[in-house]
Amino acid sequence: METKEFRKKFGVVLKSLGFKKYKSFWIRKGKEVSELVELQRSQYGRFYYFHYKYLINNLNVENVIFGGHATAMVDIDDSEMKVFKGTLDLENNLSDNERMLSLEFFLKKILEGKANIIDTETKLIKYIVSNEKVITFKPIVDYLKMNHPEVSSKDWGRFQLPVARDANQ
To answer: What are phi and psi of 76, to 5 degrees?
Structure first.
């Protein structure tokens, strides 16, 4: 399967799940939190990386997307991830039909059930503090802490940056 055809079919599946194209990304808007999907081509071969992120709607989307200020996660187990990665590898011997069936299966599994599950900042906070696999960035944590003081500071513990030590000590 050619790269252009693969990206086009990837977009068709995302559109069927309620995503809209925005520059090189696909976004599904929620009330306070939106979902972003990015398909990034490897510079080392004909395979892709799949990125799934939550975006806080009150933050400037250009800064969030291009500055990397998003909360990222993919919620499938390791054995499924191996198969999904194979689907994203255009150099393997999957037929076009097998690749598209697999792509559709995994995108629906990952994304279909997530609509409206984490659509508010409060739900995003609960998800971030309860899930060790979540990767988030300091601007996201700072924004949520400032706007949700009801969340205990101990809940944010694993996101605290270590205090820099004085070089003269």
So the answer is: -135, 155
Alpha-carbon gap, residue 96 to 58, rounded angstroms: 40
Q: Do the Cβ atoms of 85 and 49 come closer than 8 Å?
A: no
136 close to 71: Cβ distance less than 8 angstroms: yes
Q: How many CA atoms lie within 13 A of 37 on its CB side?
A: 26
| Residue 37 near residue 10, CB atoms below 8 Å | no
R_g of the chain computed on alpha carbons = 18
Residues 103/13, Cβ–Cβ less than 8 Å: yes
Model pTM score: 0.75
**Dist. CA 124–CA 5, nearest whole Å:** 34
pLDDT in tens, 54-99: 888 887 655 554 444 455 555 566 677 788 888 999 999 999 999 9
Report the distance separating Cα 116 and Cα 105, nearest Å: 20
Please give the Cα distance from 35 to 166 (Å, whole number): 40
The helix/strand/coil state of 65 is: helix
